[in-house]
Amino acid sequence: MTNIDETTRTWHNANVQNQREIGLYIVKTLILLNGAGIVLLLTLLSAATSEAAFVVAVSAMQQSALGFLLGIVFALVTATSAYAVALYSNPFTGETEIPVLGNKWVEPGYFISVLGSIACFVCAVLIIISGVSPQ
Fold first, then answer.
1. How many domains in the chain?
2. Which end of the chain has fewer CB atoms < 10 Å from its terminal CB, N or C?
3. Whole domain around residue 74: which residue ranges?
4. Per the confidence metrics, is the pTM higher than 0.85?
5. Segment 19-46, tens digit of pLDDT
């Protein structure tokens, strides 16, 4: 019985590590995308202040900056939910029992937070593109 328990515990530790790594890769990618969007805004801001052939609306820059920051927040929610799943997964039953949210929010939580971050990125890019006009 000890050998089975040790094997299950080893499998659980490997599963927890895999969940953390997957969550970390997703978060790194989402933060990279939204961080690159913020760099895009700063580039447009510096180009708009110089003698450029285009003008960027200030409201578009504000709204897109908010979109990129919300994308980063969604990425952090993804990381937190991945950590919670790894932390509260039961190695013996294979079930996840998160005390505050319950089991029904685990997979939709991943899906919603990842899609939310991607949607914030896409919306922010579309907003900034629509805010650029020729002089």
1. 1
2. N
3. 2-134
4. no
5. 777 777 877 888 888 888 888 888 877 7
